[in-house]
Specification:
With 354 residues, the protein is α/β, with parallel strands linked by helices. It has 2 domains: 5-183, 3-Layer(aba) Sandwich (Rossmann fold); 200-353, Rossmann fold, CATH 3.40.50. The chain contains 12 helices and 12 strands. It has helices at 5-22, 51-55, 58-67, 80-86, 106-116, 132-140, 200-216, 240-253, 283-292, 302-309, 323-326, 343-353, and strands at 41-45, 72-77, 92-97, 120-126, 142-149, 160-162, 224-229, 257-262, 276-278, 295-298, 314-318, 334-337. The strands form 2 sheets. The protein has a 6-stranded parallel β-sheet, sandwiched between helices. The longest helix is centred in the N-terminal third of the chain and has 18 residues, at 5-22. The chain is elongated.
Length: 354
């Protein structure tokens, strides 16, 4: 699937607009260090509509909980449903979502700006760098300090800016940890992973849902339960014909497998009669469901990173994106390049993995 025209146009126009606005910016002198003892309230600005990008905030959120245990964090996102993933985390105060078509609704936009400016934070962190929408939100927010990494497209006013320099971690999911440098906090000695801090209650609810699904279909114990998710953005999506052949081949490799097709608004019907189906709009329970299964399999997509953040066992199937930058984090997880590889071969790999 090709990138939609409106997305391609936006990607072309946004950098040009930012560069133009940067010409009028007076951001020439900044501090680079923040005293963490001054910070009690933080807002992370990431007005993005993709699940994976929001889950990529969890390493920073969890490290801030360790080093600034009394600080409360708000997060500004662009997707209400995805934002609910973060809100139950222990040090999150609230998640604020920006309606996607806010610019087309001026009254609602003014109401949002008024709401945003009703709170004054100790620190606002622009996680998105030169993003136009992130800088607009940064401008609207009241904060004693505003921090960002340097980007030639920056035009909003910031009190603290650092050169990004060499990334400590290559994986995009750990990029947010670079902001620890503003607090002079050492990077974790052991590479962290994504983690939404599921509660025991959420895990129990998901396990009960899995048990009920198996019971409904008269499935006994001693089966390997595999959850699959078939959707992905644009050309990362794997065709249903590929999945169908993979399912048939996997059942030949291991008759004790049970495959559960995870449905969504974009995939409302299951792949075929050989698989079960499950869906849940509560993304935290969905993540816990992935954990309850023996294996989760999908392409490079938001639910894959949700599975990582839920401590599920994962086999990620990549065909376009860079495995080092976007692959499945976490010990015990595997990401393989399936470009040009038959579903039969991948089914053998899957059978060996479980």
């Amino acid at each position: 699937m090709k990138i939609p025209l409106h997305v391609a146009i936006r990607k072309k126009i946004s950098p040009l607009l930012n560069r133009f606005l940067a010409l009028f910016s007076n951001n020439t002198s900044h501090k680079t260090s923040i005293d963490k003892n001054e910070i009690a309230t933080i807002v992370l600005i990431r007005p993005n509509y993709r699940i994976g990008n929001l889950i990529f905030l969890t390493p920073l959120i969890n490290e801030l909980a360790i080093h600034l245990p009394n600080a409360k964090i708000d997060v500004i996102v662009g997707m209400k449903l995805a934002g609910k993933i973060l809100e139950p985390m222990p040090n999150i105060n609230k998640v604020i979502d920006i309606p996607r078509k806010l610019l087309m609704q001026p009254i609602d936009m003014l109401r949002y700006i008024k709401q945003a400016r009703s709170i004054k934070y100790d620190l606002a962190i622009n996680v998105s760098g030169g993003s136009t929408s992130a800088q607009i939100v940064t401008t609207c927010i009241k904060a004693k300090y505003k921090a960002s990494f340097y980007d030639k497209k920056l035009w909003a006013h910031f009190t603290h800016v650092q050169e990004r320099g060499i990334k400590h971690y290559k994986h995009m999911g750990l990029e947010s940890l670079e902001f620890l440098r503003f607090f002079n906090i050492d990077f974790p000695k052991k590479q962290p992973s994504l983690d939404i801090k599921l509660t025991e209650e959420e895990k129990q609810e998901a396990q009960q849902a899995l048990n009920q699904l198996l019971k409904k279909n008269n499935i006994t114990a001693n089966k390997k339960i595999i959850a699959i998710f078939r959707n992905a953005r644009f050309d990362k999506k794997i065709p249903d014909t590929w999945w169908d052949e993979w399912v048939k081949s996997l059942y030949k490799e291991n008759e004790n497998c049970i495959i559960i097709d995870i449905l969504s608004p974009d995939i409302p019907t299951k792949l075929n009669d050989k698989v079960l189906e499950y869906s849940n709009k509560n993304l935290r329970i969905l993540g816990a469901f992935f954990q309850a299964c023996d294996l989760y399999v999908s392409a490079d997509t938001g639910p894959m990173h949700l599975a990582v953040a839920s401590n599920a066992k994962i086999l990620a199937l990549f065909n376009k994106t860079d495995i080092e930058i976007y692959g499945a984090l976490g010990e015990g997880n595997t990401t393989i390049d399936i470009e040009g590889t038959s579903p039969i071969v991948v089914a053998k790999t899957t059978a060996a993995f479980i």
